[in-house]
């Protein structure tokens, strides 16, 4: 990490001491010069990242100092701050035109302090992430790799787009920097197009395109293809450095936000104990099952599953073991339903299963098979049975989730009344279950 150094040029010892203390608090090592020419002499010997000078120096004007400082090799991108006692618009304009970065009042130390603190943070910040870099010029490749690694980034560098595409397909990158004109059969434009065609999240990775041809129509086409930024050659290190920082931090913040949203969605939609969908999720997604069944005239069944004698299990084995039983049962149910089905924990020991494409006979058969498999599974080392009620969507009645659940729940209670460990089907005409399968 580079050392932070600064130069203070001012005839006032009081201001020099205040400025040095302020810079020291921000992490800068400050040298002091009393005159403009002395400051320029120091700048010839040492490259300072920050220079603070008075607009009223004893030997030269502040604007002239700024102009001569910018002419020194290595000071193109240094921060040059002019400190003033009064607001003289003409003097301030001259200083800015001569190369001053900004102008501050000597009477407002807080503003200067904020600027210096932010500059220190900007200069010392380190990134973590992976960059895919494609450049066929070995010299430029070395220069940019040094810049990126100095920022704390891991860099995978290639000279051919074909190799880069293969690496991208198997990697997780935070930024892609690619030249447009490359050796080989694949251009940088083709690489950009292939990346943007990906549907996964990593297809949204930020892309910086580089080129020695500063053609407006070509740049516009690149933005249409999906590049996030364009840097013309010859590349300015400080410019690229800031662009890289902005794109990577924005992308990483976006991914972090997306992860938080997914986590919140999981918390809102999943039952914490069983990791099945919860009642809220069932209400959220059931509309799709119902609308598709009505639209395409398809069958849709619901099964309400209730664990038999669960209160007695809790009393005999304890609530902790009862929770373990529910957790293992939830995992088992998830593995033993079809991919198109939706299984949710409704409450306590009650579960709801949506079965698209199933009439009452098929739904009943599936539930009977589930009961048979369950006899070979003892969650938390406890033998269990289930009572199941089945109901099917009545297209002529325009059933809703609530009405479908009410019918299946009523059938489940009929199964309980029939001795448990059985499947009952709801019959709309008499509102009595008419079929029973006992294990």
Automatic annotation (TrEMBL):
Its EC number is 2.7.7.65. The modification 4-aspartylphosphate is found at residue 179. CDD domains: GGDEF, REC. Coiled coil: none annotated. Residues 5-121, 130-248 form the Response regulatory domain. Residues 298-428 form the GGDEF domain. GO terms for molecular function: diguanylate cyclase activity. It is an enzyme of class 2 (transferase). It comes from the Bacteria. It holds the Pfam family GGDEF. This is diguanylate cyclase.
């Amino acid at each position: 990490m580079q050392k932070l150094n600064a130069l203070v040029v001012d005839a006032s010892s009081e201001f020099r001491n205040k400025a040095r203390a302020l810079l020291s608090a921000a992490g800068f090592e400050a040298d002091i010069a009393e005159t403009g020419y002395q400051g320029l002499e120091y700048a010839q010997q040492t490259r300072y990242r920050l220079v603070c000078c008075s607009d009223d120096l004893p030997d030269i004007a502040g604007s002239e100092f700024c102009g001569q400082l910018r002419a020194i090799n290595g000071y193109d991108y240094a921060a040059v701050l002019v400190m003033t006692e009064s607001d003289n618009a003409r003097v301030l304009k001259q200083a800015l035109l001569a190369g001053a970065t900004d102008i501050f009042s000597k009477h407002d130390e807080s503003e200067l302090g904020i600027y210096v603190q932010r500059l220190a943070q900007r200069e010392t910040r380190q990134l973590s992430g992976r960059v895919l870099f494609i450049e066929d010029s070995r010299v430029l490749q070395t220069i940019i790799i040094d810049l990126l690694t100095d920022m704390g980034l891991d860099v995978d560098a290639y000279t051919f787009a074909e190799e880069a595409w293969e690496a991208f397909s198997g990697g997780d990158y935070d930024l892609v920097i690619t030249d447009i004109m490359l050796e080989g059969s694949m251009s940088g434009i083709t690489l950009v197009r292939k990346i943007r065609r990906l549907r996964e999240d990593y297809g949204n990775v930020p892309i910086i395109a580089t080129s020695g041809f500063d053609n407006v129509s070509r740049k516009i086409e690149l933005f249409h293809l999906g590049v996030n930024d364009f840097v013309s050659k010859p590349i300015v290190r400080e410019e690229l450095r800031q662009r890289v920082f902005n794109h990577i931090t924005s992308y990483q913040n976006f991914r972090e936000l997306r992860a938080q949203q997914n986590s919140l969605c999981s918390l809102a939609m999943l039952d914490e104990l069983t990791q099945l969908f919860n009642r809220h999720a069932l209400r959220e997604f059931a509309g799709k099952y119902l609308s598709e069944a009505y639209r395409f005239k398809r069958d849709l069944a619901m099964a309400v599953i209730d664990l038999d004698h669960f209160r007695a299990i809790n009393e005999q084995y304890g609530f902790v073991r009862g929770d373990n039983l529910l957790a293992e049962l939830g995992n088992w149910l998830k593995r033993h339903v079809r991919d198109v089905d939706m299984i949710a924990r409704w409450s306590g020991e009650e579960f709801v299963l949506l079965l698209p494409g199933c009439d009452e006979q098929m739904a009943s058969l599936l539930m009977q098979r589930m009961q048979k498999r369950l006899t070979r599974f003892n969650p938390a080392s406890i033998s269990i049975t289930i009572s199941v009620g089945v109901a099917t969507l009545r297209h002529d009645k325009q059933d809703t989730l609530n009405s479908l659940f009410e019918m299946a729940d009523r059938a489940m209670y009929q199964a309980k009344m029939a001795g448990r460990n059985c499947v009952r089907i709801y019959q709309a005409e008499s509102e009595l279950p008419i079929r029973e399968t006992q294990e």
